[in-house]
Structures are given as structure tokens and as C-alpha cells.
Amino acid sequence: MSREPVTLTIDGREITVPAGTLVIRAAERLGIEIPRFCDHPFLAPAGACRQCYVEIEGQAKLVTSCTTRVAPDMAVRTQVTSELVRRAQAANLEFLLLNHPLDCPVCDRGGECPLQDQALAFGPGESRYIEPKRTYRKPIPLSPLVNLDRERCVLCARCTRFCDEISGDRFIELYDRGAGERVSIAAGEDFRSPFSGNTIQICPVGALTATPYRFVARPFDLSSTDSTCAHCAAGCAIRVDVRRGKVVRVLARDDVEVNDAWICDKGRFAFAAPDRPERVTTPLVRARGLEPASFQEVLGEIAARCRGGRVGILVGGRLADEDAYALSKLARTVLGTNDLDHRRAFHGGRAELLAAARPMSVTYRDVEEAAAILVVGLDAEQELPILHLRIRKAARRGARVFVLHARRTRLHDLGEHLLVRPGHEAFALERIREALAAGGDGPEARIAAALAEAGERAVVLAGPRLAEHPLAADVALGLAERVGARFALCARRAGDRGALRAGVHPTLLPGGRRVTDDVERGQVEAVWGPIPAEPGRDAMGILRAAAGRELDVLYLVGVDPLRDLPDPALARRALANAGYTVIQGLELGELEPYADAFLPAAAAAERDGRVTTWEGRPRPLRAARAPLGLSRPDWEIFVGLAEALGADLGLGSLEAIRAEAEPLLAPREVPVRSSAWGAAGPPQWIEERVLFTYPLLVDEGRLLEGATELKAALEEEPFAEIHREDAEALGVADGGWVRVRTSAGDAVVRARVGETVAPGAVFVPFNQPGLPVAELLAGRFTVGVHLEPAAEPAAEEVA
Amino acid sequence: MSERRPRVDLSSAVGAVASGMATILKQVFRRDVTEPYPHVIVPPPPRSHIGRHRLNRHENGLEKCIGCELCAFACPADAIWVEGAENDPEHPVSPGERYAKDYQINYLRCIMCGLCVEACPTRALTLTSYYELSFTSREEAIWTKEQLLEPPPPLGTDPVDREG
Amino acid sequence: MAVLTPELRAQAEAIVARYPRPRSAILPLLYLVQSVEGWVSPEGLREVAELLGLRTAEVEAVATFYTMIRPRPTGRHVVNVCTNLSCALRGGRDVYAAAREAAGLRPGEESSADGLFTVREEECLGACDGAPVMQVDFANHERVTPERARELLDALRRGEVPAPSRGAAPRDFRHACRILAGVEDLA
């Protein structure tokens, strides 16, 4: 379509807009607000509500401005200058309100309702309709999260269009027609979409409401803070609504560069964790038991243990960028160690180095405008939901999407899947690379041809599944470079990319500078002072060292090695044998018996800072409320610990941290060849049947605690997904029980048989209720597995 | 300062004094309007709305309040706290889906303006003529839903009795 | 219990293959299910959705939009009487009343207890020149009088297939649905 500018007049004022612009958008640019319900800037025009009538010179009838595109010399008159339009809009509002219950005092939307606002601004004030209104049973729960009130609905179809155009999860539809038309869901089905909450936010009336927010507050009760969602590395713009010091609601904010207007249900509904009674908000130190103490006392005690001792630091994926930088500096310059790691699995290699050194190699916009997208080792819907929506948007705009993954992802309706056994991704990538030259007609050849054709408009997105096989990420990078595609190694957790960039890593310093490279280390030493030159231990190495009594202090920052890392047995030994264990975070949980000191950290909604998206884009975190109790932001604790050790990090404020970090984190070139394999060693291929696991969007993670309705809506019972061929060979039936045995342990779970996983692979979701999969893993997220049919276990065995 | 001394008109001065004395004499023999509260309590006019709030019930016993918070929104002194919740259809507190789980009025803040009463869409909140609001602590000044649902006691009841 | 037998499933797959996108086959498949059940049950909806790779709601939205797809069990013959303006002016309402009476329907009933007839009031059937119109198993009978309506229903009751105003008529509702599904031709 040509984008030639078009000039038209609206209410006598001239404006020039690109061809294809809708009249309603052109009017917005002039600051003329035409009332509307069905129109939404991120949804295709529908013309369903008939509210946005305007008069166009030369047209016999009024037209809806949300479906009419501009034309040269068009003369539009809105309600501002046309009495006819004013009357039509008032009549339409009267019509929409015929069956509307006007129960605004009861309705959650009351006070922030487009129907309320526009009825006031454009409506007739009084209705001539005196007959009884239509009634429906209400509220109808579409899922544990979303309630439908059909009486309030104005049939704008925003919700159903969202499910059709944006998420692709068409659970709800407009049923019937005429006076019987209504939003409905199939009998016996739940609105089981991880994006269902967006339909509530875009509903222009109170027809869709959120169970967790039902009758909880009014808009005037709320103090709102613009912030960023810290649940994953998507970096969505959110608004946090607080009533009396308690977060009661999270909404998506519009940001075309990142999340358009959407967030996932986890970001929207998982906000209760910091308010749980299990939260510890006072520093604790072990005397007779764990006893409350002041920060000064506890930090002093920790400092005494650290002084001259060997310290290992494990870090979760939730630190803000400033925290990560302060910790990186604390570890290197004050604690004198490179033994710190934020990773659950290990990349090493050039792809990781690039991710540390060069932000923004791929942006959301690049994804949207791509002609071909290859997603490798990433289940985008579950791991980076908003990236998933961008990929879908790109596909609808004509991009060819290919997914190379061990398990079918929710892109299956728009993209072509190539199911490869976990660990064999590199082979598949190699075949694609070979097909670039050799051609052919297999799936690899199709991918190769599409990537080659797209060239610069090709994007390769590599995900966490490649983390365990360093070669795979580098092979993906090599393939991208070969065809000139953009490449990103997509971090999953909100703090991953920032921690990597800041050098919370055993071999990398800020900006991807290698500890072992004297020149690169020297660049950091010029700012920081001396840094130990020998490479540190990675996360598993730190645990092994602690288990072998080689560490005097084990410092756990926002991480629970019993749950987060793939070897709980090792973690238990490490915790038992560490000289002194310091826990920093929101709560102690199962770590309580091992803790010698506890430092209460502020939750993401309680502090300022920045997080980095998977792209490498910094995003602002803002405090929506004060930290509970004595808890404080992690960076302040790190600075305090340095002080207790008699050192001054020179990082007295967020601004000071940013100012010092900025030059070190500036994008920089990295050498073409890298020797930084880290301690992960060369990749190992497992030839037998393998079990692999990764966390689904909603699991038993700590930040999801308290999100009861969200879990009821989206959490799954534990299952083992098995390919039909394997299941037939083993005699396992779909829905039957199967015993999963690895070298670390065994469990009995329900089997799901189908063609949704690669043959030879078994998928078990990480961290589901009743099945701590970590107990089956022997140090890696992919392990050899033995399967056999099992009898239904007794109740206690399942739990 | 005027230069000339005003001339005193004797006759008008006598007249003024006389009329003043007449006013005094008239007032001396008029009935006293000061009420000897609390020894004698004069009931306010029957439809007066000068005192504390009351939360009303429907005839079937259900509360009229639906917890909509419009009173809290209207309150210029931020004296009202409302928390809504969902009615149990088996044992509803109020008609419809929503009821007030918590309702408090802080009489240290309330200025008796009555805007809350005007805002109430269900006539659940009205003012009564019970004006005997005195407290000895801040906690006591915050009236809870249970207290507001009670009809006011007769005037002159010892405020201490109100609680028990 | 599956609605579609393996044989019918094969036919369904052949229908799907006729279209560039599976979604386009919703209506033919709904007719196919209806030819088996006489209506489209929730189970039938699920099967169509599964065959087309759609959500049940997408199929049900289409099914509820069209009055030809029956959401409730239906008689052997479906009689639709147009009562829109043209037909109403020419006595459509009397025809409707006569058809209901001939089918033996009590007030509020749509289908007769003997399972023979479903009589419905229908919106415009697109044959205003022949008003009033009565449709028997999707075949139009034009200029129907109340007497003619009674005769037609009596004929159906005897097992005859009365000739419509134009063309041939299906044997019964399920037969009509097989034709509309595209798996059988009109005799």
C-alpha cells in the first residue's frame, strides 16, 4: 500500500496524514476526540459499536470514522461542528444504554469506564426507554480470573478480536445474532489463555472484570505508579495500583517499542507475593535460633566471616541492573573473588559474550518488521510472552516463522515447527547451514531458503534451551552471521541480561570483558582497582566447592538452590557444609535451617532501579510503595556490606551507580574468536532417551505465591509429555501413569502422549505443584531417562 | 480628628437612652432561650439531620449499602473508609452482587456536610439527629459498620453506654 | 461416543481438503454432523473443531449464527414458515399456525412429541414473490395456504415427499443436511 501523504480537512482544519490512516486517527492528531467503543489502535477496524459517526461531505449517510480511511480533499465534520453528528452520537449512546443495567455503583469499572465517561460527554442525558431491560445470569466465570457480565456488554467485540488477532487463543466468541448476540465460551471450557487479562483491560464497559480485583477498590482509592514488570525479561510497561500500601492491581501501559498495549496474565495477576506473611522484613542472625537484629549488627557479623575468608556468591535472576553492578564490584574488589554466577544453565561461548557486550542487537521492532524469524530453543509464549505476541504480529504481517525446539510451542498455528531432541539443536542448525549451499526440499532447506531470502530482515532468536550446550548458541550465531540475520540470545528472567552485562559471572566483567584477558580486565581495573585474575567458579562449581568445604561463606542473593538449580542433592550438601550461609531475599522458605544470616531485600514494586529486557534495553523500575519493614533495595545492602568491611564502593546512589557503570557498559566490539567456554566444558551429547524441563509461565515460583486465581486458571498438574512412537514402544497410554527414572531419582506422573515433543524426548514442566522435577535432574536440565508404565500411585506418592 | 466638637442634642440623647433601657427591660422579662443541656434535653425537630450517620436496612433486613464507595468519593474531609466484597448468594448481606465488608466513619474528620448522603445511590446512608458525639480517644472516634447500623440511642444516654 | 464414524471422518477430511483454509469447511462439516444427529450436539461441535484445528467456540459461534444449524434435537422434518413482512401480509402467520396445529404442537413446543416435525417461525426466506413461503427440509413451497400447509404435513406424515415449487426435494431433514454437506447429490 502506498504511504503517500493525504491532505484532508476535519472540522475545517487541514491535516496531512499517510494514506491508509483512519479518519478517527487523523482526528486524534488534531486533538479532536471522537467517542468510540470498539475502536482500538492495536486491533483491526470493526465498526461494531457505531459510536464514532462523522459526516463526510458528499456522502449521503453518516459513516463510522473508525472504519473509514482518509482520502484526498475529504471534508469531515465531527460532533464539534455538525449538529447531525451530535444527534446521531447521542442517539447511539441512548441505544447502547437500552439494555445496560446502569449498575455503575456496583460495577468495578465505575469511575474509569469509557461508557460512563462518554455517556456523560456525548450522551442525551435521559433515555426514552422505559420497558424492562434484558437480563442474563451473571457473573459468568470464563475462567478463575475473568468474569463476564453480559448485561453490561455493548458487543464491541474488542475481547473476541483480541483473542483472534493478537493472542490467537480463540476461547471466546460472539455467539448468535441480532438481539441474542452475546459473548460466550464453549461449554465446559475455560478461558485458558495466558493473555486473558488484556481483554479485561480493553473492555470499554464493565462486562469483563478480574476476579482478584472484584469489588476491591475504586479508581480514586488508588495511587498509581508507572513501572516495569519484573517477572520476565520482556520488560513490559505497567502501571501498579496501590490501595493503602497494598498492590491491588497491575495494568498494561502502552509502549509501541516494547509491549504495544499488552501484558501477560502473570505480569497482571502475580503481585501478591511481597505481601505474604512468610515474607521476612527484618535482618536475622543466628544466635540460639534465627533472631532479629539490626542491619548494622548482621552486616558486621557477615563482614567478620568474609574478612580473609573464601566467599562464593549465587545470584537469582531478579536483581535490578544497579544491584548487579554493585554486587559485581563488591565481589571483585572487596570480597576478592570471581566466584559469582547468576545463571541456571551455562552458555559460555561467543553468543554469550556478545549478549554481555552488545545490547539491542535485535529489538521488538526488528522482530515485528522481520521477513523471516527462526526461534531456536525458546518457548516464547511460556518464557517471554510479549515477545511471543510480537512474533505472532510479525507472522500476521507476512513474516515466515520457524521454530526449532524440542517441544511444540504456541506458534504452531502460524509457524513451521521442527521438533529436535534436546541437545541436538546444533545438528539441526548445522543442517540448515549446509542447506544454504546445497538446497533441497526438507524443512531445513525451507528454513535456509527463507533466511537467505530475508537476509538483513531475518531474525534468529536463541533461547534458554541452548544454554546447556554452548556449541548450540554459537552455531545459531554462526548461522545468523552467515545469512546476515540479526541474532539475539534471549534471556528469560528480568535480571538475567542486566546481571550478565554487569558481570555477575565467573569469567566476565562488566560489558563482557573477560577476567582472563589482561587488557580487558585492565579496563575495568582502571575504574574499580585490582581484580583477581583467575576465572571464578560457575554456579554448580560454587555449590561443589561449598559441598567440599572449600568456601567459608556462601552468599545466596535472591536464589534458592534447592528449587532453582538442577541438583538439589548437591545444593543440600553445599548448604550443610558451607562455613557460613547468608541469605538475601524476600523470604527464607526451605532455606531456613541452613541460614546463618538473613538480609531482607525490597521487592521490585518497592524500589527504584532499572531492569534490562532480553533485547538489552534498560527499563525503569519505580517504587509503588515503601519497602516493608526494614527491607531495602539489594544495592544498598551490598554497599552496606562493603562499608562493614571497611571499603567504600563509591556507589552511594542509583545515579552514582549508573554514572560509573555507563562507560563500562557502552556497546563494544568483541573479538571474533573466543576461548571463553567457561567451566562448562565441551558439550556432551546424550544418546539415550532424555528428559528435559523448563519452567512454564505459571509455576510454583516464589513470585507467584499468593496469586491463587492465576494458578487456578493457568497452572498445570505435573505431566510427562511423550512422543507417540515412544509411548507405543513402552506401552504407555495417553492419560496413563508413567514412572520416570533418572540417575538422581524417580517419580510417577501422568503421561501426555502426542506428536508435540521430539521422539526420544520426554518433557516434564519445571517446578509444578506436587512434583519437584529438580530432584530428578543430575546437574543439568536435560538428563538421560528411563520410562516404564506405572500403576496409579497412592495419593501421598503423587504429592 | 475633627476640629469642631460635636454639638450634643440633649433631647435625642435622652430618647436613645430610654429606648436602650426599654430593650433591656424587655429582655429581662423574656423567657430564657439557653437550654440547660444536659440537665434538660430538648429534642431537635423531627426531620432534622444534624447528627451522626446511620446505615439503613431494607424491610427484609438486608443492608441497603452496596459498598460502592461513592460516599467516600464525595467526602471532602476523607472521613469515610469503605471496602467492598462479593455477596454470598446463599447468605447475602445486601441485595445484588456487592456489599460493604467494612465501613468506617472517622468523626474527628467528619464535618457533617451531608455530601455523602447526597452521593448515596441506595439511600443507605442518612444523617440522624443524634448529635452527642464526644470521645476520649481517637479509636473511639472511628465508628464501625456495626455501630453505624444501630439506630441512635435516645439523646442524653451516657456516651460511655454507647459501646456496651 | 464419537458422532462421526471412521467412514464419515474420511468424508469430512475430503470436504476439508476442498478449501484453501480448513476454517472454510465449518458449515459443510456442521451439516455433516447434523445429518448424523439431526442436530448439532456439543460433542458434534467439539469434533468439528478438532477436525479443523479450531477452538470449539469458533465453531459454536458459526453454528449459533445460522438458523439452519439446529442447537436442539429436531424432528424428522423441519418446517420453516416465513413470517416476515411480505409473507405476513399474505397470511404467513395463519400458515404458521396451521402448520403447528397439523404437527400437533402444544404452545411453547417446537418439535412434536412423535419426533416427526419441528415447526419454526423463520425470518425472510428470500422468495417474497411467492409469499407466503413455507420451507420443508430446506425446499421452498410458495403461495402456501393454511389448507395447503395441512396437506403438506399430512403427506409427510404418510411418508411421501411432496414436490416443492421448484426442483426436487430431499427425503427428510437429515438427507437435506447430507446434500448441503456436499457428500450426496439431490436425487
Task: Name the shape of chain C in a single word.
Answer: elongated
User: What is the annotated CATH architecture of the largest domain in chain C?
Assistant: 3-Layer(aba) Sandwich
User: In CATH, what is the homologous superfamily of the largest domain in chain C?
Assistant: Glutaredoxin
What gyration radius of chain B follows from the Cα positions, in whole Å? 26 Å
Number of alpha- plus pi-helical segments of chain B: 6
| Beta-strand percent range of chain C | 5-15%
The helix fraction of chain C, in percent, is 40-55%
| Spatial gap, N to C terminus of chain B | 68 Å
Q: In words, what does this structure look like?
A:
The complex is a heterotrimer of chains A (799), B (164) and C (187). Chain A is α/β, with parallel strands linked by helices. Chain A contains 25 helices and 36 strands. In chain A, a hairpin with a 4-residue loop joins strand 6 and strand 7. The radius of gyration of chain A is 28 Å and the shape is globular. In chain B, 18% of the residues are buried. In chain B, the strands form 2 sheets. A 3-stranded antiparallel beta sheet of chain B has the order 2-3-5. Chain B has a domain of 111 residues: Alpha-Beta Plaits (2-Layer Sandwich), CATH 3.30.70. Chain B starts with 9 loop residues before the first helix and ends with a helix. Chain C has 2 domains: 71 residues, Arc Repressor Mutant, subunit A (Orthogonal Bundle), CATH 1.10.10.1590; 91 residues, 3-Layer(aba) Sandwich (Glutaredoxin), CATH 3.40.30. A 4-stranded mixed beta sheet of chain C has the order 2-1-3-4, covered by helices on one side. In chain C, helix 2 runs antiparallel to helix 3. Chain C is elongated, with a radius of gyration of 17 Å. The model of chain C has no long low-confidence stretch (mean pLDDT 94). At the A-C interface, strand 8 of A face helix 3 and helix 4 of C.
